[in-house]
Write a structure and sequence with these properties.
The protein has about 270 residues and is mostly helical. About 60% of the residues lie in helices and about 5% in strands. The chain contains 11 helices and 4 strands, in the order H-H-H-E-E-H-H-H-H-H-H-E-E-H-H. The strands form 2 sheets. A two-stranded antiparallel sheet has the order 1-2. Strands 3-4 form a two-stranded antiparallel ribbon. Helix 1 packs across helix 3, helix 3 packs across helix 4 and helix 7 packs across helix 9. The longest helix has 23 residues. It starts with 8 loop residues before the first helix and ends with a helix.
Length: about 270
Amino acid sequence: MAVSSTTDGEAFVRAVSEELAALAEMIAQQQPDLLPLDRSYASLDRVEDFYQACLEGATGARASLESRLACYVGATLAASTGGRWEPPRTKSDLGRASIVGLPYLARAKFYPLDVVRNFKRTRSAGYLRDATEIYDIPVRRALLAHLVVNSDAKLAALHFDLRDLLNRDPGALDGSADSLAVIEAALKQLLAANAPRDLLRRIETGAVLYLGQIVQCAVGGEWTLCEDPDDADLGQLQMHGWAPITVIRNVGPNSRPNLLQTVLDLVIKARSNK
């Protein structure tokens, strides 16, 4: 969607509505099983499936689709949080519309177009939803509270998922180097096999809890949520100021061996000296 710094607010809102209607019509014609577009976070996974199919198609995805998807990503966050659209007004906006007025993030600007373009570059399963939902602080706070209360059950589920994925007994999740190596192998296998995003999310979430628990046992600390819009860890769960997801998502086919253990050692050492 092409907009300028002088775009009238009402005209901008009308343009967004037109883009959303055009996207809904495209999906209804090509993949109606992905409907409805109800502006829920879950629907972002379905929209991502549609975009992935378009990117893999013979003609690829048109620039107009990128704009329509960005409108949907932004409209989804706005619908959940009460945020509002803001046309680009400053040089730093680089012509990108944003969602502002987000709860507990008064200074934040969410640029939906960046989310769409990053997915196009990385093709990371679940990225549209994950990169959007982290700006919904009430939802993330509720998730943190749920995970803390149910941490034992989540870690037990992680053990079962590892067993099923690797088709063998993963051993005890006892904080050992062997247990970290098992999780690392599972993460690499998930990526190599293009595993379902729900399974990937479950194992990532369990791994976040597990790595955080190891840090907590070593140096203390409590689970918190990063709510600083200038921090790269915005919306992520942190233990003692460290977000385990950062190393988990750096595990891949070409990552160095024993990456989880190496990073954990550094995190614990840094916090032991404070």
